[in-house]
Structures are given as structure tokens and as C-alpha cells.
Amino acid sequence: MIMMLIEAFSGLGIFLFGMTYMELALKEVAGIRLKHWIKNSTSTPMKAILTGAGATAALQSSSIVTLMTLSFVSASLISLTSGIGVIFGSNLGTTVTAWIVATLGFKVKMELFVLPLMGVGGFALILGSSRKKVVAIAKAMIGFGLLFFGLDLMKSSIEMAAVSIDLSLYTSFPLLVFVILGLVITSLIQSSSAATAIILSALYAQILGFDQAASMVIGTNIGTTTTAILGSIGGIPDKKRAAVAHLIFNLFTALIAFMLLPFTTEILMNGLDLKDNPTIALAIFHTFFNFLGVVLLSPFIPFIAKYLGRIFSHKQKMPTKYIHKVDSHLPDTAFVALRDEISRLFVKTMKFSLLISNIKPSDIFKNNRNAKEAVEANPERIEFDYQGAYEKIKEIELSAIVFANELSQENLSTEQSHSLDTILVSIRESVYAAKILKDTRANMDEFYESDNPDIVQLYNDIRQNLAYAMIIFVNYMLEIWTMEKCREKFEKAEEGNNKILKEASSIMSKNKTNKTMLVSLLNTNRSVYIAITSLFAASKGVRLHFLLEKDEKNTK
Predict the structure, then answer these.
(1) Predicted confidence (pLDDT) per residue in 433-453, tens digit
(2) Are 318 and 324 a contacting pair, CB within 8 Å?
(3) pLDDT, tens digit (0-9, with 9 covering 90-100), for 275-314
(4) By CB neighbour count within 10 A (0-12 exposed, 13-18 middle, 19+ buried), where does 234 fall?
(5) Which of 72, 206, 329, 338 has the greatest number of beta carbons closer than 10 A?
(6) Is 275 helix (H, G, I), strand (E, B) or coil?
């Protein structure tokens, strides 16, 4: 019995690994296009539902699509109404997994296709290692094979265990217990697909009756909402609202499915005569109640969005952190607050710059990576609301200039007047750098999505040059480097800029790639260099040691 449990547990682990490996591979193959599809195909609730269903069927993971949707809603890339539609559709798309498992997993001999599939995938992975798409497809094949290999292990071990299990011990349990059991299993392993595979295996081995298995599947639908709820923690209100909409949909469909369970069981077992095919019956049941939920709730998506708009309301926050707490009529304290505020603005602009170039700020501020390591550690595009982030920088600028203007009306010493001029330069240069970099975001995305290795290399060179400049500013603010040393280091950033220009010119002269994109890349490189230069000018007005003493939370 212990060996059977070990085999079942091992099978579950292999199943989960195979599913995760396949999901990651599919994201590599279609990730960018899929994200564009989700963003651009949600203009109506029906389109959003179909997009959610299609994306989930393609990635074989409602959790990934749901989390992706939450991030899009959080970044204001799609509306809350569209996000709710995608989430509704993802619940329908996730039923494809049940169909694959129920039809192939229990109707086809695994050894006939699993081993050849993984074998071909393995050869393709080694022989096609230089081609990104071939590697991704090979990984998907291996993941798909491992998924079914793990399922086969679970199935065989559960079948053997069924002989020694006395079914009469729990047949009297109310069906609600099985709903809760399905919810708990899904919440623990964070995968409704894996939980469904376990339930289908137990049903196939006759450890569970159809009603019990169906009740557990209902529970998995509720349990899968924990992923979205966890993903919404700390997000903007719309992100939390989308997670609540997911919970509403799944609770509603679970309630309807549980109420209709006796009738659907009768229809499936007797009306459609599926007594000998309980796994197919369960796949039909799973699809039916999710489809019914979509049909019943989709007309109310705008109303749900409107209702949810009343909860998790935005709290009005001051854009500034220091200057609104002091009186501009007291120059001594006002200058301290203003310099702290400008230092905070400078740090925000630095982080904004890194995010625009798809580098996590924590890799520079906290993890102490060098420029090359920071670029290599961030190969993916970072989704964030860059328009909103820029607007916050502008709000700080406006408040700081108004405060500085009020301060200038006071009886200031010559030294204070000079200090105020330096601070105003820092404000202008910081915001100017943010504006320039904001305008490069579309080009950064275009270079990231390019299949041309020359373009990608130059794109990474630009990112590395910008990261290097941010490291200079961090070391200056922490008083590790003096301004003189920073000036010396800054010459290396200039060399990096010239190197990119030479490489781009060389590629263009050899007619190796799209000249329009190369020109766009050169313009972006120039914009980045201008922004770096502006930030260097702005750094003269910031408070040294500010990163360590004043803005510790913001550096994480």
C-alpha cells in the first residue's frame, strides 16, 4: 500500500512538472502574440470571453491566463469589464484539459505515444538548441509527454489501491464533503487541471462514484480562485475587483452545478447511457456547468463591473511624501523637505527608467547586479502602467515647483537661493528624462519582440548602458563614489553609446537587417543617452545617502 501511495505521489509530481514545463514552453512559443491577442481582442464582453477560452485552451492553464489578465487590468491595458469577460472565458477554456485527460489519458495506451513524443522532443531540444522556437516546441513535447506519463502512474497506482479500499466507509458522506475536498486539493496544489486529473483517475479506478467525483470537480472550480485572489493582493482596486469577479463566477457556477447534480447525473448516466464511460461523462459535466455559468452571467458583466466599482475604492493619496508636511514660510525645514522630495523624484525616475527598459529595479537597488547581469536576469517584457507612473512623476513635479515658488518668495540667503536653483534644475532634468524614456516604450517593445538577433543584441546593449548609468547614480547617492569618480564612470556610458552607433552602422552597411528598424533603434539609443545625461545633471541636486536613510521601502 505504501508503494502504491509513493507511486501515486510520484505520478502527481511528474504530472505537475510536465504541465508546468509545457506551460512555460507554450508561453515561449506564443507568449508575446498571446498577450497582444488578449489586449487587442477584448472590445466586447463576447470577444473577451472567447479570447479567455482560447488563451486558456492554448496555454492549458486558467491560472496563467487569469494572472495575466489581472496584470493587464492593473496596468490599465484592458478595462475591468474586458478583464471579467476574459476570466469568465478562461473557466470555459480550462475544461479542455479534462477532455484531453478523459479521452487520451484513459483510452489510449501511454507507451504508444508518450515515449516517442518525449524522445523526439529530446532530440529536437539538443539538435535545435540554436533555434528558439524549435527549443520551445521541443520543451512543449517533453512536457506533454511527462504530463501523460505522470497521469499513467497515478492511474495505475490508484487502480491497485482501489482493491484494498473499502468504499462503504465513505459512501454515506454528504456530497458537500467532496466539494470541500476538491476545493482543498486545488488550493493546496494550485492547479485545477491536476486536481481534475486526480479525480478522473479515482473515478476510472472506481474509488469514487460519479456523484462524488462531480462534486469534487465543482470544488476544484472554487479552489482555483485562490490563485487569482493571491495574485490580487497589493494590487490596484481594479485588480482586486477582477479577482472578486472570478470568485463570483465560480461560486455561482458551483452552486448551480451542485443544485442540478441529480438531474445531470440522471441525464448523463441513463439518458446518454454513459455508465461505462464515467470519465467522458465527467468531462461533459465539467464543460456543461462552466458553459451554463458563462451563458447565465455574461449578459450581466457590465453590471457586475459597475457593482464592483463601488468596492475597493481608491483612497486619495498625496503625490508628495515630504513637502506637504512642512510650511514653506520656514525655509530651514522647507529646504530639507524639498531636497528629500526631489531625491525621491530622482529615485522614482531611475526606477521608471529601468522598468521602461524591462529591468526590475530591485536588481540594481537591492540585488547589486552589474549591468550585464541585470540585463541577463530580465529577458522578459515587464508589464506595468508606464503612463500612470509617468503621470505620478508629473504630479510630484507640479507640487514641488509650486512649493519651490512659494519658498522663493521668502527672505532667502544667497546660498539658499543658489540651492533652490540647483533643486529646480534637478526637477526639470528628472522629469525631462522620464518623458524621453516614456516615449521610447513602444520601440522597446518592438525590439523585444524582434526575431532578428542583431536587433535583439543592440536592444540589450542599450538596456545594459542604461543599467550601467543607474548603477553610477546609486553609488553616488550612497556616497560610495564621489562626483568626480561618477564623472569618470560616466565616460564609459558615453563609450557604450558610441559602440552601439558603430555596431548599428556596421549592420546597416552590410544590409543585414531592416533599415527602418535600425533607424528606430538608433533614435531610441539617442533618446536613452539624452535621458541619462539629463539624470546626471539632475543628480547634483539630490541628497546623498537618501537611498539608505529616507527611501528604504522604495528600493526593494
Answers:
(1) 999 999 999 888 888 888 788
(2) yes
(3) 888 889 999 999 999 999 999 999 998 898 888 877 776 5
(4) exposed
(5) 338
(6) coil
